[in-house]
Design brief:
Shape: elongated
Largest sheet: 8 strands, mixed
Strand content: 15-25%
Strand order of the largest sheet: 8-9-5-10-4-11-12-13
Radius of gyration: 29 Å
Structural class: alpha/beta
């Protein structure tokens, strides 16, 4: 019936603007209640001289078309008040800094870097959380040895929705889509489904008070990245690369995504992972298996902070497989990550 009423109202023309009152936006609201039709008209001009004429035409037109209904026409003046957008309910209000850890391509060790950065920040005295946003390849549960964790939900009176309780591992808070699927499941989700799941993990996880929330991003640049940028105010982004040129070429795309004017997230640094290999029996030797210094050169040439290099160390791989990231038990790894974290914190604070 409302559509019928609108069609009838299109026959009413404002004598001054020569536009019908529907297409010109004058019809503010139509409501139907029992045998009454309420129509609200808004005139931009105060004391519009044609207001009474238009009101009469509207009433007569609708009464003739809708026999048996009483028509009540209300006139309003001026621009409609702008409605304030409803603030999203979220449990991220206690998070001071959100840092995305991203990579232009897969296979560069982004998730391993994220886990070790988180633990080093913890060792430096910060309260840290990790969100595993790599929807199609979540690996943080394995990295922290909590693959069997099953998140529970508790009703939160402040936000009035069910809060998801994150895993607590090694003094960190951890949330991952991997907690909700079996390790053998193939996650065949369309973009909308993945985005909705990620939105829930961001806003409904009970993060509490954190100094840093690290986001383990999926590789590349796509829907999930844009979703995160829209949902969270990122303090900065760390780009992980390996030295070879094919990896650095993908870094360029990642950097440009964060630097895009519509995104405008500070790139707080580049990390060059797998920079060289040193055998245990030849500690003074360095073998540059993937080329040398490609990510460092790119950072220097493009005025991007270079956070540091991480060599290939067998203990890093073993720690990831065992659920104990290498900074916990290898002093060499700790040394590299401490230097990187000190620069990262400094750059994040500068960008705030």
């Amino acid at each position: 019936m409302e559509q019928q009423i609108k069609e009838r109202l299109k026959t009413v023309i404002h004598p001054e603007t020569k536009q019908n009152i529907v297409e010109s936006g004058m019809v503010e609201k139509i409501s139907i209640e029992e045998k009454k039709i309420h129509i609200s008209l808004r005139f931009k001009k105060a004391r519009d001289p044609f207001a009474s004429k238009i009101r009469r035409e509207v009433q007569e037109s609708i009464e003739s078309a809708m026999a048996g209904y009483a028509v009540i026409v209300t006139l309003r003046e001026g621009e409609a008040p702008k409605q304030q957008p409803e603030k999203p309910r979220t449990m991220t209000t206690g998070v001071a800094h959100v840092v995305a850890v991203a990579s232009g391509k897969g296979g560069v060790g982004k998730s391993t870097v994220t886990a070790n950065l988180a633990l080093m920040l913890r060792d430096m005295g910060y309260r840290v959380g990790v969100l595993d946003a790599d929807i199609y390849g979540p690996s943080q549960p394995k990295m922290f040895g909590v693959e069997g964790y099953m998140p529970e939900a508790e009703h939160d009176t402040e936000t009035n929705f069910d809060a998801i309780i994150p895993a607590e591992a090694m003094g960190l808070k951890l949330m991952s889509i991997g907690f909700f699927i079996q390790p053998t499941d193939a996650l065949m989700w369309r973009g909308t489904m993945a985005s909705n799941a990620l939105r829930q993990l961001i806003h409904q996880t009970r993060w509490g008070t954190l100094d840093f929330l690290l986001i383990d991003m999926p590789p590349g640049t796509g829907d999930i990245h844009l979703q995160l940028i829209n949902e969270l105010k990122l303090s900065g982004a760390v780009i992980v690369s390996t030295p070879q040129q094919v990896a650095v070429a993908d870094v360029v795309r990642g950097v440009e995504m964060f630097r895009h004017p519509q995104v405008n997230v500070p790139v707080t640094g580049i990390v060059e992972n797998m920079a060289w290999f040193t055998p245990e029996e030849l500690p003074e030797n360095r073998y540059y298996l993937f080329g040398r210094g490609g990510a460092r050169r790119y950072a220097e040439e493009n005025n991007i902070p270079f956070l540091g290099e991480i060599p290939i160390i067998q203990r890093v791989m073993e720690g990831s497989d065992e659920g104990r990231p290498a900074v916990l038990n290898d002093s060499r790894v700790e040394e590299y990550y401490r230097s990187i974290c000190e620069k990262l914190v400094e750059n994040v604070m500068k960008s705030c």
